[in-house]
Amino acid sequence: MTITRRKALTLAAAAPLSAAAVAQTTAQRGTPATKPMRIACLTFIHETVSYLPYDTVTEDFIYEGSPARGEALLNSEAYGYMTGFVKVAREHANVELVGIESPLGSKKGSGSGWITKQAFDRFVNKMIAEIKAQGPFDGVYLALHGAMAVRDVAKGEVEIAKRVREAVGPRAFIVGTFDPHGNEDAEFLRYANMAFCTKYYPHYDTNLQGERAARMLIRCIRGDYKPVSATRKPPIITPSVLQWTGASPWMDLVQRALTWEAREPDVYVSFYYGFAFADVSEVGMCFQVMTNGDAELANHVADDMANTAWRLRDPLWHSTKVYLMPEGVKLAKDAMAKKAVPVVLADHSDRSGAATWLLEQVIAQGLSNTLIGTVADEDCIEALRKKGVKVGDAFDMPVGGKLDVSAGKPVRVRGVVNTVSGGIVGGGGGAAKSQLWVSVKFGNNNVLLISPYLCQVTDPAQFLECGIDANKFQTIAIKSRVHFRRGFYDNGWAKTILLVEPVEPFLGTIRLEALPRKFNDLKKFYPYNPNLKYPA
Ligand SMILES: [Zn+2]
Q1: Is the link from the previous residue into 265 a cis peptide, with omega within 30 of 0?
Q2: Mean pLDDT lowest among 19-28, 236-245, 304-313, 396-405
Q3: Which of 7, 14, 392, 467 gets the most CB atoms within 10 Å of its CB?
């Protein structure tokens, strides 16, 4: 497709300006690069697995260091959205950042059940009160996720943007950063001006999107960028395990977004894969495209991305092989026999952390030299804490299961306490340091790591934080979908990767039809309705 008007614009822009002309243009704009500005920064990040049998409550966000405000909030992470935002904002002159009191991650880990309205209101009311008290602001930065689900609130992130807009007025600019597992539609951009979404899974570019958000927000405030956006929602729903962007066609969609950003100055493409395990009306894939005042171009790029995704809808569902648990564990045994080790057995489906299906199969099939990390069991951990557990103690307890049917039955483990630690930092929310994690040695050189909450181990080195050297095992059985590829696959560490799920179509498996839905209808999405047409 040719865009004649755009070509004309490009040619005009290519004509060199004299230094005098540049100076004159800058003066006419009346927006010197040193104009002081104030930006409020806040965060509220949660990926809600609304099918879990427990809610995420106020106390889950309150622990040492959370909520955070001021410099503590701005420096609350070593790497990520806020870090990138602060770094680039502070490279600009006369930019004042104000850290608004915000909850850091839930101590139940990256995903947990419905956020209660009480918890949501508690933190958002405080944010709005602080914005009003400390304003006026020229801009607001919202570090969000996009898959937040709040009881009795239709769209959590939209509600935050709406209330922030009411507080700062129509002239301020609002920019958000998002996780690609966000369930987004056009609503957020009714109240906010821009949204930048991480492109890769594993999420390698969180810091980069924060940096970009800062630069673009400052450009907006200085009148150098007039954001217009276009949103498309091709009706495609996929489970997270299939969304690995290291393989085609997921990789191709990321590459296509990057290509648009490279070939058209000031175009930004946000690609949300969607999060199928939140029962919300806005579930499913989404593209948002932002341009500098060019609605025609925004619509053109958004159509191109959405139509391309729709053409690829069938391969999007077949890029990753997932085995049923018994077969996957047998394949791990075969790989060990052939010395194709280390083997990673990843139970992608466990959303509570308590699932015992993999542990059960490891024991049933007699695997040796296997590290299982983790099975979450808060009651077991509390019982051990009360006992004053120490290394070398005999261990004979049922572990895991119970939480819901998808977690399975508790599995009795008999062995010896191997390590007692504070757990994996970042693995159990920001509160990990104050937690108790216990590992047990059993069978033929097997170790089971028990944590209070779900932990996705993303790098074998993380086990060292619990005193366990993953290099001493041949199979590592973990709970992760894609994030583990950072440290187990992308660097060539593992020789065999096996993604597994229980035989039954439970919460978390690729069989999304197993979940009861109240706020959306699978029949409105590919592949659950073969007769869908897009664009409609
Ligand atoms: Zn994500």
Answers
A1: no
A2: 19-28
A3: 467
Centre of ligand 1 from the C-alpha of residue 340, in Å: 30
Give strand ranges (E) for 298-410.
Answer: 323-324, 343-347, 370-376, 394-399
Distance between Cα 337 and ligand 1 center (Å): 35
Q: Quote the pLDDT of residue 299.
A: 98
Dihedral Cα 183, 347, 77, 52, nearest 10 deg: 50
Region of 73 (left: φ > 0; alpha: ψ -120 to 50; beta: rest) is alpha
The pTM score is 0.91
User: What separation in angstroms does the CA of 355 have from each of 326, 327, 349, 351, 480?
Assistant: 15, 17, 9, 8, 12
304 C-alpha to ligand 1 centroid (Å): 24
434 has a pLDDT exceeding 70: no
Rg of the Cα trace of the chain? 24
Ligand 1 centroid to residue 402 C-alpha, Å: 26
Residues 89-128 have pLDDT tens digits of 999 999 999 999 999 989 887 679 999 999 999 999 999 9
Residues 116, 270, 88, 428, Cα dihedral to 10°: 40
Report how far apart, in Å, the C-alpha atoms of 216 and of each of 86, 120, 268, 445 are: 13, 28, 10, 53
Distance 238 CA to ligand 1 centre (A): 13
For residues 349-369, average pLDDT: 97
State the pLDDT confidence band at 435, using cuts at 50, 70 and 90: confident
Indicate whether 21 pLDDT > 70.
no
Task: In whole angstroms, give the CA distance from residue 482 to residue 480.
Answer: 6
Q: Ligand 1 centroid to 323 CA: how many Å?
A: 22
Rounded Cα distance, 197 and 231, in Å:
13
48 alpha carbon to ligand 1 midpoint, in Å? 11
Bridge partners, 67 (sequence order): none
**180 Cα–ligand 1 center, Å:** 6
Cβ atoms within 10 Å of 16's Cβ, excluding its own: 6
10 confidence band (pLDDT: 50, 70, 90) = very low
Tell me, what's the pLDDT at 445?
Answer: 97
